[in-house]
Amino acid sequence: MPPERQRLEALFLSQLGWIERVVAAVSRRNGLARDDADDFASWTTLRLIEDDYAVFRKFRGESALTTYLTVVIAMLFRDYRTHRWGRWRPSAAARRRGPLAVRLETLVYRDGLRLTQAGELLRTAGHTDLSDRQLGALLNELPIRQSGRPQQVASSGGADPPAIEEADDLVLADEVAMARKVIGDQLKRLPPEEQVMLRMRYWEGMTVVEVARGLGLPQKPLYRRLDRALADLRHFLEESGMSQEGLRAALTEWTN
């Protein structure tokens, strides 16, 4: 075996545990069923080793290798989604109503997000300032789409429809959306390392041990830093006037 290929193979094997954890986190975040998650894991492994480990050969050391692989795997999921369920095309009705309708339709029917989740993503990205209720009205003007992606069914036997929720649910959803904005604003004030640390722990679903290993940080102090960060977030949310129910919902959603 040529020395360069041997080096890249050893590098791949040294990162295999991290790759498996990131793949699992991406699968959870995108709601993949177990069979689909296993298929994505196998597909990703093949993409990482093909062309004599081209992905590893392209690494230039401008970031930690674990950070580089996390980004690569997130991008690979987009390719996998197209490979597995086909390329998404917006409906004629969505195209007639403009870019916002196209994006909303894509988030709900292709990506499987709830209306409140899609609304928050659109507002955070600056695509709209419409409320969930207004976005729900827009969604109801569009045809119901089937993406071809298997949908996980709730334990009650049915799936949550992407429609306008009841009034009480919308009030709570508005509070949670406000909490996400407060959390996002607060994260931007933190040093870059702490931003990455919190995103890996609570958005990627990684354990403290995995975060510490990925960032090269000591594990024990990391627990204290995470606890302080959560305490600060709770304080900012309380100062915003959120109800106790909304506060619990926001923190539960963010930390689970």
What does this structure look like?
With 256 residues, this protein is mainly α. It folds into three domains: 83 residues, Rna Polymerase Sigma Factor, Chain: A (Orthogonal Bundle), CATH 1.10.1740; 59 residues, no CATH class; 92 residues, Winged helix-like DNA-binding domain superfamily/Winged helix DNA-binding domain (Arc Repressor Mutant, subunit A, Orthogonal Bundle). Helices cover 71% and strands 0% of the residues. The protein has 13 helices and no strands. It is flat, with a radius of gyration of 20 Å. The termini are far apart.
Distance between the termini: 45 Å
What CATH first level of the largest domain would be assigned?
Mainly Alpha
Q: What is the count of distinct domains?
A: 3
Q: Mean of residue pLDDT? A: 75
| Number of helical regions | 13
Order of helices and strands: HHHHHHHHHHHHH
User: Which residue ranges are poorly predicted, with pLDDT under 50 across at least 5 consecutive positions?
Assistant: 150-172
The tally of beta strands, per DSSP, is 0
Summarize the structure.
With 256 residues, this protein is mainly α. Helices cover 71% and strands 0% of the residues.
